[in-house]
Amino acid sequence: ASLATAGCAHPISMQADTGTIVGSAKGAPKVDRKVALAITEEQKKREVTTPGGGGDKVSYFPYRDLETGLYVAMSETFTSVSKVTGVNDPKVKQDGITLVLVPEVTTTSHSPSLLTWPPTVVTIDLAATLKSADDRTLTEFKVRGEGRAEFDEFKGDHSLSAKRAAQDVLKKLVKALGEHTPKALQALSAPPAQSAQAARAAQ
Hints:
The protein is α/β, with parallel strands linked by helices. Helices cover 33% and strands 31% of the residues. It contains six helices and eight strands. It has helices spanning 41-45, 62-75, 90-94, 151-154, 160-188, 192-202; strands spanning 9-11, 31-38, 48-51, 57-60, 78-84, 99-110, 121-132, 137-148. The protein has a five-stranded mixed beta sheet with strand order 5-2-6-7-8. Helix 5 (160-188) packs antiparallel against helix 6 (192-202). The chain is elongated, with a radius of gyration of 18 Å. The N and C termini lie far apart (45 Å). The model is unreliable at 1-6 (pLDDT under 50).
């Protein structure tokens, strides 16, 4: 495909090389808990359009593209990870899942180029909520990933800045899970009122 602008939304991908995520926990012992990643079918079908270069736009499916990477990142922290559509998914109780990660993804992109459309900078903001099987919010945190790519790099891969942003946010997610999971487990063992108070204090 030509890099010249054409006044339309060009499809790109946010799928990170998950091999770069493996080992991000740097040898930390995994938490022996059954956990789940909650992404709805509607979220996976959600297409997002943000600016590219030369007045053009780029389009992508952030939840669909990030799903595998999120699963791998969680697998760096926990011994057992499943995929569900939400806290109320029957699999949560059937499989004895104790923690559910609910992600909210927002993105931006831009490029100063007037002649080429691929974005030179992409950011991914991930707001993560760890919930109990009975839908209590245990802890919340946010991480941001940024990816940059110049013309000489992205002429071979128009999605390069987006993939780098995904890789960055997923590595930061692994680190954040290591920091926030103990708070979630502490809140999980507390009575509901104390759990809600602990979640607010952890923000």
